[in-house]
Amino acid sequence: MSDQPSRIDLRGVELAYGSYVVMRDINASIRRGEVFVIMGGSGCGKSTLLRAMIGLMPPAQGEIRYDGELLFSADRTPDDLARRFGVLFQGGALWSSMTLAENIALPLEQYTRLKPAEIRQVVRHKLALVGLKGFEDYRPAEISGGMKKRAGLARAMALDPEILFFDEPSAGLDPLSSRRLDELILQLRDVLGTTVVVVTHELESIFAIADTALFLNAQTRTPTALGNPHELLKHSTEPAVRAFLTRGESSHETPAP
To answer: Strand order in 222-227's β-sheet?
Structure first.
């Protein structure tokens, strides 16, 4: 990934709610076609950072840039850049009154000039990509949690975004559904070259999918590790990082004594 140009740059980012600082001194570059994981324990600011990166809240300090362009600036609104990416929220965020096809068609109807027949074709293709071919007329209440996540991903992919954001994608899923979602994330990276940013605290997913991981330390309110999680596990001497990456896990490689 080191030879790929930077797609997202975080420079001196500070996150705060009023005078309360959640996280400061966030610096990272996310490459094209990379799976970048934001990890850490509960309350460390993972989802807050995601909100800032998708334009829902400005950082208290610092810059967030997409291909060199500022996300928050006086010249444009975040929406101008936000159409480049799709977001999969924790619960899938599907409209319960709509079928899966109607949910996925919604952004196409709002942001494109495609004809109804063309939209139906795109919807079928996106559902097939996430393994939901034939489920167009199902409603969210009629499918499983894992299928809802995949349907939410199909909607996030509706406009062919360059970047996909996932907020705790494995939350509430059984281990098999979680592994299938991880495999789908890797497939999107490998086949489509999509840049993927994932917020998670799930170790299995972190070790399975992350090219690079950023650890947010809730105690210091600063990031204290950045790198491939397998390499961090081997070489990091930061106690909080090691505690996070080794909690109750015996299936991952650990450094020799």
So the answer is: 85-88, 163-167, 195-199, 35-39, 212-217, 222-227
